């Protein structure tokens, strides 16, 4: 292209950054005065799919640009952390608003590669000029993470720009690595078992959102995946069970809340299906969430049970600051039902 754009936007999770990403960024630099690197899945807890913090991923980009292109090139890059919404319209609107604040409304390009079904987001921004990239030698962050988890001390130098191999080796020595690696192994084992079915396996779960006097009831997960993270009481729906019954059963099992099911049913105020394809590391998982609003000043006593390590009433007003502690999309589920209180 001959026209130089004001800014070129490049969206990704970069978990981790590899040479394909870096080649795309160099093309973006040739097409625009500035390059906006959008760091997706920002402010989420470490998981096997997203093992690196926002700050670590920005540091990878800065180190690679400085080492391979120099400080002058680095001065033309902006790094924009972007949280998940599991709602395409909200996510696209938020990204467009933040890019406009950073680089203006005119002369904006969007660069990327239509790799697979997950690349649909490239079609969401009609006012931005699309710069389509080809396949970058089949490089994949998924394959790099697999090698990293499975013990490769020296990642292939053809995968990543220098000095990222050294950075990855250092991160592997951090105290959190062992837990993430063990979770990766466990989830892969489960997926291998599911892979023997004659059709793609899909899970059905039910969650309970319980509010009482400005607080919501949460558990801290005891098992994999998401060990130690805050979550809504919930779990898998049994074969002969209705979804609402599953939400009440899981609520009782995980929190030992002493309230009759009939009373809880009378306090049901809303419900919604959460079905984003990427919402769970376990594979395609549909969750029906039920919102019970208790009319009580004193919240009922709770005690952890089943696969919950802890059960607690948490002020709704504190949830926004605890997003990085939340399991999968449970923060977004809470936003759906008590979002007005969360963001005041």
CATH superfamily of the largest domain: HUPs
Q: Let me know the largest β-sheet.
A: 7 strands, mixed
Give Rg in angstroms: 22 Å
| Second CATH tier, the architecture of the largest domain | 3-Layer(aba) Sandwich
The count of helical stretches stands at 10
> Could you report the average pLDDT, rounded to the nearest whole number?
93
Question: What this model shows, in words?
Answer:
With 344 residues, this protein is an alpha/beta fold. 33% of the residues lie in helices and 22% in strands. It folds into two domains: 5-171, HUPs (Rossmann fold, 3-Layer(aba) Sandwich); 203-342, Nucleoside Triphosphate Pyrophosphohydrolase, CATH 3.90.79.10. The chain has ten helices and twelve strands. The longest helix is centred in the middle third of the chain and has 18 residues, at 177-194.
Task: Give a short overview.
The protein has about 350 residues and is α/β, with parallel strands linked by helices. It has two domains: about 170 residues, Rossmann fold (3-Layer(aba) Sandwich); about 140 residues, Nucleoside Triphosphate Pyrophosphohydrolase (Alpha-Beta Complex), CATH 3.90.79.
Q: Which descriptors apply to this entry?
A:
12 strands; Nucleoside Triphosphate Pyrophosphohydrolase; about 350 residues; Rossmann fold
